[in-house]
Amino acid sequence: MYGTMNSWKQLAPLMEKYVDKLEFIESPRYIFFGPKALERTPMILRALEIRGTIMIITGGTHTYKIAEKLADRLDEENWSYEILKVTTKMPKTKDIENLVEKGRSVRPELLIGVGGGRILDVTKLMAAWLGLKYLSAPTSASHDGVASPCINFLLSRQIESEKGPEWAVAEAPFAIIADTEIIKNAPSETFKAGFGDLISKITAVKDWELASKLRAERYSEYAASMALLSAKIVMDHANEIRPGFEESARILVKALIGSGVAISIAGSSRPASGSEHLFSHALDILAAEKGYRNTHHGIQVALGTIMMADLQGQDWKKIREKLMEAGVPVTAKEAGLDRKAVIEALTIAHKIRDRFTILGTSGLTEAAAKRLAERTGVIS
């Protein structure tokens, strides 16, 4: 039951041997969402035939209170559980290892991550390293990680360098419990970030198509279509995406789950992450190494989408208009980013990871980066 190898890692050698013939799709088995969905967790656990101890992974004051409410419901049903609070703002490899040791001492049957991206990343890795399934219970709709096996890029890179690439591999959640009553009351920035992350599928899929044509990279039309549909859904409802409204939360959650499932179908983050994500990752690296300001991932990705759409010959003006409708920042100044950071991030984005995009292998010169950012209005 306990170990350091999850099912995907065990299947990896088989996948490599039959890579041209065999496909493996791993996606959430069950999805529950709607008002007060989290209160129905005991019923959901019974439906999933879970009987043992539950470990709830959560974070700061706000999410901890939500986790306590979940614990109260488990108490009412006489369920055995433990709450593990993650206090580190930016978890490191050693932090994950320490949390895994705590998990081993409790010997849970299932993990439930209650929180935002940081908490869900920790839950994914703990589940993988313990050899357990986990449930994703997002408290905001800021990115498609709620339904995908992907973890934070910087955390993944750190783990790969310290423990090896196989240790940065996680699984998609066994189930998702998305309580739209909770998500609708999340900070407004999370709605903007979620919208930005979803609209980025437009440039991500175009980059994937380009890699398929120029590098013969495996391409899934089904996964690509699903990712683009997620973007279309929010674009069609751009003026309705506002905090405080359950329907807004519902639209975002559905689209984010769709994007996460597209990743599972593709077997990689390709349908959801392209040059615009490389730009965002570059901003994060510059923030860590040089002290530049950064902001929400989805907002950075939105700015990247505007610029990469221009390079790809897509209608970047329409994308910009939809972002504005949803209240998402469309300039570096609005996002609180330094113009120098934007230009430098554009020049190094192509080197962030081994992924072919519109940026090619040589990237943009400083002059070209400056012209692109100015042409699209991201900087003035």
Written overview of the protein:
The protein is α/β, with parallel strands linked by helices. Helices cover 54% and strands 8% of the residues. A 6-stranded parallel sheet has the order 1-6-5-4-2-3, with helices on both faces. Strand 2, helix 3 and strand 3 form a beta-alpha-beta unit. It starts with 6 loop residues before the first helix and ends in a 5-residue tail after the last helix. The N terminus is likely disordered.
In terms of structural class, how would the helical and strand content be classed? Answer: alpha/beta
Order of helices and strands, N to C? HEHEHEHEHEHEHHHHHHHHHHH
By CATH, the architecture of the largest domain is named Up-down Bundle
Overall spatial form: globular
H/I helix tally: 17
Distance between the termini: 56 Å
Query: CATH superfamily name of the largest domain?
Result: Dehydroquinate synthase-like - alpha domain
